[in-house]
Fold each of these.
Amino acid sequence: MFRKLSTSTLSFNRLLQPHFWRRVTVLALIALLAWPAGFYRGAQATQELTQYKGVITAFDDIKRHISTQLLSVIEGWKIKRLQVAFDGAQKAFEAGNVCESAQALNEALRLAQSFTQQKRQPLLEDFFNSGWTLRQSVLETQASEKACQGAEGFNREPEAKESESDNRRFHAEIKFGEPRFNTIKAEGQTFTQVELPG
């Protein structure tokens, strides 16, 4: 009933037959094609998880910044409003609502700007830049083909559009994407460095 396994089953002559090597080659190619795809999906999922954790850490850092450093420049009730705004933005992000989170951050930053008085406060300027960077980190977690309302210029390259030009004058309109703000401290002063995409 059972065939006895012997050395003749895997004989040297069988290894020399072309159809045997074709099968081995096809199986090897399938294995080579399938293995990197699984590896890539795993690496992409790890990157998304790391990016998610980075955004959550940034939320925690900025909320800590509100409750510790901003107390010296704005009143307690304003601090509470900012905390509530950032808590709402973080909850929306954790629920997977990237656009809602970015919109809430935008409103929180407008609120922070409204708290500034005539004199520019370096702590508030640094806070605004950190909040803007957090908003952009939140937007980076969104798929590139899905643009959020109010953030259409995020990561957009400059676009030039020619208008009413002739042989003596050239008129063009250039649209830039959203800027990035970085706080620079030099010679005891705080400055904002603006970077435009492209």
Note: The longest strand covers residues 180-186.
Amino acid sequence: MIEGFLEREQEEVYRYLHPQSLMDRQGPGSFQLHVAGSALCDAVGSDSLAFANVVMAVDSLPIIGLLPFGAVVLNDSGRWKVLSFSTAGVVPATSDVSVDGFLVEAQGDDPGEAPVSPILLEPVSGFAFTQEDLGRSGLDFVWMQGHSDSVIGEVIEFVNTSEQRSFLFLYQDRGGERRVERNMLPSNAGEWIWRVWSIGSDGRVSFSYTRRFTQ
């Protein structure tokens, strides 16, 4: 599936994307790689959600060589589809979090209640960071956690035309605020989209609304 996802023309790649993916907002040319071979390094997940690390042998200019990719896939009516996909994968936000350890908790058989969606707080949609802001502290991405007993973790996701970054948190302080420092992001100029996922104990995912910012 992932090889097909990488090799498809822009118009065809959408059938591999989950309906909730933000990757259809990326510009032309984000895909269209020729994959000579691939190897699955590891994959963990539940019947609803899975994280996979893959190494691809790519032989199409401007990229030639071995590339690591991280994919998050969701079950969409019995078919696995790509929710997010990048060379960075999903990065644990703190040293005490591991994707493997987290997903052990997402194996429950009891579906329970659907996870409650988080609420984005700061910055407001359309906010523009300036060059003077680059070295400043206190310019964080802040959201309110959804109050739900079924939530076991959250992912904050950032997407622009050439990059995708996602950070995994364990769920704490139900209903409290959480934040990510802006300096965790690459400095790519242009418009970005961000949102937060809530992940339930059965692997189901709920999403906040999206917001945009430029830098």
Note: The longest strand covers residues 63-76.
Amino acid sequence: MMMPEPPTNDVTTPRAFERNAASEALVRYTTDDLLRFGWVPIMTGVIFAGGAYPIVIGVGGVAVSLCEGVWSLLHGVPADWDSAPAIIATAPFIACAVAVVGMFLTGVIAVFTFPLAHLFLWSLALPANPIRVGAWYGGLVGFIGVLPVSLAASGDVNSSTGWWAWFVLAMGPGLTMPLGQLGGTLGGRRAWQEAVERDARYRRLAAEWQTGLDPPAIGCTGAAEGAATQHLQFRIVHLMWAAVWLSILLTIIRLSGIAYRLVVPVLLGGLAYQAALLWIGQHLIPRLWRRWRAGAANLFHVKQPAE
């Protein structure tokens, strides 16, 4: 007997989901998403980003040293290249060592911040988009990972060595947050692809058995098919939860004994930087990427001669 074909719908593709405002608005983060949302790929991506951070810092330092040596040679000053072979020989081992340490420290931070991120998303019932949640979570882990350095540098911004404080902030949260967002985005995309495949299996099973089996709502796919477009409506419960989270934050700051004049600028600056990076990654970079691809396609497009 011929089995019926499973239903097809382009909404089950990640790219189509990004264009489907209804599905993104209707699927909310719930307590069930603690296990099936895709936190494992997201956290894995963030941990690998934490391992890449010290490597990026080391590569940048080597590049600066090489530029300094070339600059000295151009101006007739002999450069010290005696230690270059030793550095090149030991660089892979040092990179592996610092990557393991970075991944371990990032993993510890991710384990402790994961329950808070889950409770935050659940309490506010935010849209369950794994890609955007991964980017937000990666930036949060990157910010917390270098928070002590940021607090120490923020106190010297207005001093005579303010330029050094700005440099430390640029190499600290200025670099860890975009790296964390990149790792979280890649992990969220992987989680989204797994959710799409899982949803396709449920649909295929439902089509074969001709049942009304519904796919699980994991922040994706057909959970919102045929539903009217809705948006996040701000309610009293959101205000109450916002007050609760603000109270918890102020309590932690109070118990830590850190002065508010140091913590508040760092938190506000980190929040603004996180929002700016998310906006750039969501709107600006895809637009520039599409323009670059279109320009490259026009540049290398060979017109066929008319017959």
Note: Residues 1-26, 215-230 have pLDDT under 50 and may be disordered.
